[in-house]
Write a structure and sequence with these properties.
The complex is a heterodimer.
Chain A lengths: L2 H9 L6 H20 L5 H15 L9 H20 L21 H20 L2 H11 L5 H8 L3 H18 L3
Helix pairs in contact in A: 2-3, 2-4, 3-4, 4-6, 6-8, 7-8
Chain B lengths: L4 H13 L9 H78 L2 H8 L6
């Protein structure tokens, strides 16, 4: 069954088929959520919320872009919303790291520095305008080319280039060493 | 101090390489949430239907009462009209009777009654 047929069947009342979409995409979604917020949010909870919102938004999905891109956009919105609601700050205890690291990877001091750097980047990404955030996430985390992003989002190639350029500039302005 | 372009690229790559430490399986919880949401929706639909039914029934009852009152009022007017007609009829009959009496009690007859003999 194609992606389009699957969505049509779900919209026609076969809700149980939605489980297939969840099963196929949950690893990517949880991975992106973890990249965007680390342990600051309950990843299971965020992932679940993403799929609940996806189900609600499914009637609005037009097959102009891939479902995975649509899911990514929803994930970005959900994470952003939940982070601003939680308003959690960087954990102060050195043992309570935002990212779980294997002990052999780094010593505790390096882990804290790494943690701060990554958290700073995550916060900066959250502060980007929505279209810039979407572009930089798709480009960096999904490793999509400019052309793929343009096709998926229905943007022109020039717009994608401009968005990523501005996103990187803004990130550099926000990040401090 | 601002990040250089390379430093930003490196940090972005570091962030991109991070993987979620545990396997997430939310299929059951998502489907459970959807089912609960649908049940809630169905419940609210039923509730809405019940409210509509109550409003409909009450409107119907109110309309029936209004209709009954209207018919009652009409009947009452009709009865009144009928009464008026009967009264009128009686009145006419009475008048006719009265006139008949008047006619009946002609002066001649009155004279007879009084024993007045005009020929005398």
């Amino acid at each position: 069954m194609s992606e389009q047929q699957l969505i049509e069947e779900i919209l026609n009342g076969k809700t149980y088929l939605f489980a297939q979409i969840v099963e196929e995409n949950q690893t990517n979604v949880s991975g992106l959520c973890y990249k965007l917020c680390g342990n600051r949010l309950d990843i299971d909870e965020v992932t679940q919320q993403v799929f609940v919102e996806l189900y609600t938004a499914l009637p609005r999905f037009r097959n102009e872009s891939k479902l995975s891109t649509f899911i990514y956009k929803i994930t970005l919105n959900v994470v952003s919303k939940m982070l601003s609601r939680e308003k959690r700050v960087l954990p102060r205890e050195s043992t309570d790291l935002v990212f779980e690291r294997k002990s052999e990877d780094r010593n505790i001091e390096e882990s804290i520095i790494y943690d701060e750097k990554i958290t700073q980047l995550q916060n900066a990404i959250q502060k980007l305008k929505e279209d810039q955030r979407t572009a930089i996430v798709l480009y960096t985390f999904e490793e999509k080319s400019y052309n793929e992003i343009a096709a998926d989002m229905g943007w022109s190639l020039a717009k994608v280039e401009s968005l990523i350029f501005r996103a990187k500039n803004n990130l550099r302005k926000m990040l401090v060493k | 101090m601002k990040y250089t372009e390379t430093e930003l690229e490196n940090t972005l790559q570091q962030l991109a390489s991070i993987e979620c430490p545990h396997k997430v399986d939310v299929v059951d919880s998502v489907m459970g949430s959807l089912q609960a949401a649908q049940q809630k929706e169905q419940f609210s639909i039923k509730k809405e239907r019940r409210i509509r039914w109550t409003i409909g029934t009450m409107s119907l009852a109110a309309a029936s009462v209004a209709l009954l009152l209207f018919i009652g009022n009409t009947n009452s007017s009709q009865a009144q009209n009928e009464n008026d007609t009967v009264a009128k009829f009686i009145s006419e009959v009475y008048n006719q009777q009265h006139q008949a009496d008047v006619v009946f009690y002609t002066p001649d007859y009155i004279d007879i009654l009084l024993g007045v003999d005009e020929s005398l």
